[in-house]
Amino acid sequence: MANIPWRRIAITGASSGLGRALALACATPGAVLHLAGRDAARLAGSVEACRAQGATVAGTVLDVRDAAACAAWISGMEGLDLLLANAGISGGTGGQSEPAAQVRAIFETNVQGVLNTALPALETMALQPAGADGVRGRVGVVASVAAFVAAPGAAAYCASKAAIQRWAEATDATERARGLRLHAICPGYIRTPMTAVNEFPMPFMMEPEEAARRTVEGLKKGRTRIAYPWPTYAMARIAGALPLGLRAWAASRLPAKPRQGS
Ligand SMILES: NC(=O)c1ccc[n+]([C@@H]2O[C@H](COP(=O)([O-])OP(=O)(O)OC[C@H]3O[C@@H](n4cnc5c(N)ncnc54)[C@H](OP(=O)(O)O)[C@@H]3O)[C@@H](O)[C@H]2O)c1
Fold first, then answer.
1. Is 114 part of any domain?
2. Which residue from 63, 4, 47, 46 is spatially nearest to 29, judged by alpha carbons?
3. What is the reported pLDDT for 106?
4. Within a domain: residue 261?
């Protein structure tokens, strides 16, 4: 269990993968956790596991695409020190056209869904007294190293992650004046149900617990961009800097992430 300097913590997508690992990393005695997910049974599993570690935990079945429900979830909390907007979906092209419904679902979940919790959380936090570090509250958005490369095999996913990474980093610069911090969390490959469908090599794959540990370390250090592991981050930056024609040529020779539901 990590030493966590924040007491009141909300996490979306806490029913699986990285979100569950983040919840467990934050579940210390004295912590008040608000965990959200869509799947009630798996969410209940995360809630129980966190309670077993001594945290006070509330679980809420929540679809992050529902703006009103997200605002109600945030406003129902008695103070919030840290929101981790982690819920997200992925999907690739399978080497073909990306289905329109998949493109819309990815943007609705990964962009609108993040804003649906992050924006009300910032307003709630702005009204709170500042802590000893001068910060009233923090919002971490879970983007990806995919934010740094427009991969033709996962167009909507990469674009959605770039949108929230850039929004969080730019907003962090302005919201500091209100005592608020934003963090763009950009992991490489993590062993979760999201990557279990991928049939291509995933170098430097991490366990969710390791990704959660690195995320918490980055938050504690106050990093605006929390990108890890460095080899995957460096590869994404280099791939993202390649000429577009070369990138498209390389992508046409590499296996693409499967489409959703395929
Ligand atoms: N795995 C990786 O390699 C990797 C790398 C970089 C970034 N990420 C990012 O990390 C985050 C977590 O992904 P993961 O790998 O842990 O995947 P995961 O195991 O599939 O978990 C995704 C989580 O998001 C929730 N979710 C999805 N759509 C939702 C919606 N509309 N409303 C509310 N919750 C929703 C899921 O809830 P239910 O299960 O309850 O439906 C689940 O808890 C995502 O944002 C992903 O893009 C993952």
1. yes
2. 4
3. 98
4. no
Cα 62 to ligand 1 centre (Å): 13
User: Is 70's C-beta closer than 6 angstroms to any atom of ligand 1?
Assistant: no
Within a domain: 258: no
| Largest distance between two CA atoms of the chain | 54
Q: Which domain holds residue 207?
A: 8-253
pLDDT for 136? 98
φ, ψ of residue 131 in degrees (nearest 5)? -80, -175
The total of structural domains in the chain comes to: 1
Compute, in degrees rounded to 10, the torsion defined by CA atoms 90, 223, 133, 9. 20
Query: With 80 as the cut, is the pLDDT of residue 149 above it?
Result: yes
Could you tell me if residue 31 is inside a domain? yes
- Report the nearest atom of ligand 1 relative to the CA of 42: 40
- Predicted TM-score (pTM) of the model is 0.97
User: CA 126 → CA 9, 33, 60, 86, distances in Å?
Assistant: 16, 20, 24, 21
Q: Read off the CATH number of the domain in which 96 is found.
A: 3.40.50.720
Pocket-testing residue among 158, 192, 233, ligand 1, by greatest number of atoms within 8 A of Cβ = 192
Q: Do residues 10 and 82 touch, judged by C-beta distance below 8 A?
A: yes
